[in-house]
């Protein structure tokens, strides 16, 4: 096994690595804390010097202090945005720090996965894996159980502020466990230590404060470091199956209805093991953890009291819960999710309707409308939602006709009809037609309207 540092030393002299790191860093969704006022062609003149500097820093185990200052921009989440807990702290970092991180990241990822150092139960921050693959795995497993006349209990574990709660000393030990060499550990120790941050709201900056735990959200290395930190978590349960998408962890167990009592016992044992692991690693928020029991409608009615316990809190099954942006219900019909999504989409269309007098029906407008609809309603796993709910959906958004129907058709397209407003139907149908003809490269609007389920292999 070639240590990570050996690979870094061998490959850091490749100028193309640095060029790629610069390109990737400049194109990140999270901007840097400084602007780079030069063309990429001009930067190539500095790449040789930059390559030498980054190589020396990594080999010597040093991450410059000037690169450790993060400017935090709060991004609102759900709830009252005046409350700090309802905002996501995105770190804006110096450009050169992101270039250096990207260089290490580009070597760390292939090393970690080709050497099979990271858990295959983690779908987050992995190539060819996404929220879609995670949701497909969950849905496929539950549907298989329903087809086999079994129940599936799922505990949605919440790890609030997981990225901010990482203990640096524990992380360094875990890096050592996955095979990072002592020389590389020195660099990671320097990278994690003596970090500072300020919070910026509009043009106002807070005082500078030290960061003694966690990894910066918005950094290049943050996601892979978090994956390493929680790497052994899926192996903790003995009877249940643990699946993760970054910090979203699902604990599931499939069982026949006659074995509800033993399933409760086994899941409680696994929850105790996870509780102990989370205590040791400073993670877990029991207050937001939820329990769902999935099965056919007939079987759900026969389920006896299925209660679990975590940190003294009784977990009672809920009828619906959101996982990775998707609202699941106990019979896996997705009716609730479809209704909410269509309502949200119709609300957006109503806002467009209020300003339609300043718009025309050009391709640009249709394209904008298409992207609006796709981003809200036609998500990566639309096939599951619409194939599970074959009846027309009645939107209830304010300002939108209640006569509008959104109906899946046998040919695998959507029919949108509004007898009271034919122009709305015409525009919406044009959008769907453009998507079906794949005039937009990212179009994923087709689906298979069938209740017959084939397991994903």
Automatic annotation (TrEMBL):
Protein origin, superkingdom: Eukaryota
Pfam families in the record: RVT_1
InterPro entries: DNA/RNA_pol_sf, RT_dom
Alphabetical list of CDD domains matching this protein: RT_nLTR_like
UniProt cross-references to PANTHER family, sorted A to Z: REVERSE TRANSCRIPTASE DOMAIN-CONTAINING PROTEIN
Name of the protein described by the UniProt record: Uncharacterized protein
Organism taxonomic ancestry: Eukaryota, Metazoa, Cnidaria, Anthozoa, Octocorallia
């Amino acid at each position: 096994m070639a240590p990570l540092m050996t690979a870094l030393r061998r490959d850091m002299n490749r100028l193309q690595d640095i060029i790629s790191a610069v390109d990737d860093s400049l194109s990140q969704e999270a901007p840097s804390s400084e602007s780079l006022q030069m063309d990429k062609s001009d930067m190539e003149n500095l790449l040789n010097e930059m390559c030498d500097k980054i190589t020396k820093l990594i080999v010597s185990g040093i991450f410059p202090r000037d690169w450790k200052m993060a400017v935090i921009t709060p991004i609102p989440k759900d709830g009252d945005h005046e409350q700090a807990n309802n905002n996501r702290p995105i770190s804006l970092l110096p450009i050169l720090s992101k270039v250096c991180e990207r260089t290490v990241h580009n070597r760390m990822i292939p090393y970690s996965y080709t050497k099979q150092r990271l858990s295959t139960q983690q779908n987050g921050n992995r190539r060819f894996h996404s929220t879609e693959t995670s949701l497909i795995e969950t849905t496929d497993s539950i549907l298989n159980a329903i087809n086999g006349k079994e129940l599936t209990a799922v505990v949605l574990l919440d790890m609030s502020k997981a990225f901010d709660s990482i203990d640096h000393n524990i992380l360094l030990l875990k890096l050592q466990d996955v095979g990072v060499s002592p020389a590389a550990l020195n660099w990671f120790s320097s990278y994690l230590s003596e970090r500072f941050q300020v919070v910026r709201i509009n043009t106002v900056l807070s005082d500078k404060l030290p960061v003694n735990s966690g990894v910066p959200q918005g950094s290049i290395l943050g996601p892979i470091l978090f994956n390493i930190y929680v790497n052994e978590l899926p192996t903790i349960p003995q009877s249940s199956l643990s699946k993760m998408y970054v910090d979203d962890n699902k604990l599931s167990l499939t069982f026949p209805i006659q074995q509800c009592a033993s399933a409760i016992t086994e899941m409680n044992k696994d929850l105790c093991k996870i509780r102990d692991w989370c205590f040791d690693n400073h993670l877990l928020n029991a207050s937001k953890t939820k329990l769902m029991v999935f099965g056919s409608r007939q079987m759900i009615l026969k389920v006896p009291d299925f209660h679990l316990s975590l940190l003294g809190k009784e977990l009672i099954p809920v009828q619906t819960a959101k996982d990775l942006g998707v609202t699941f219900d106990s019979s896996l019909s997705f009716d609730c999710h479809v209704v909410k999504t269509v309502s949200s989409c119709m609300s957006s269309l109503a806002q467009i309707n209020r300003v339609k007098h300043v718009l025309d029906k050009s391709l640009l407008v249709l394209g904008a409308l298409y992207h609006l609809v796709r981003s809200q309603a036609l998500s990566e796993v639309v096939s599951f939602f619409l194939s599970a709910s074959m009846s027309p959906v009645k939107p209830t958004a304010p300002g939108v006709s209640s006569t509008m129907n959104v109906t899946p058709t046998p040919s695998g397209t959507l029919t949108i009809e509004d007898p009271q407003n034919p122009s709305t139907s015409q525009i919406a149908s044009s959008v769907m037609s453009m998507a079906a003809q794949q005039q937009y490269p990212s179009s994923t609007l087709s689906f298979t309207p069938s209740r017959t389920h084939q397991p994903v292999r």
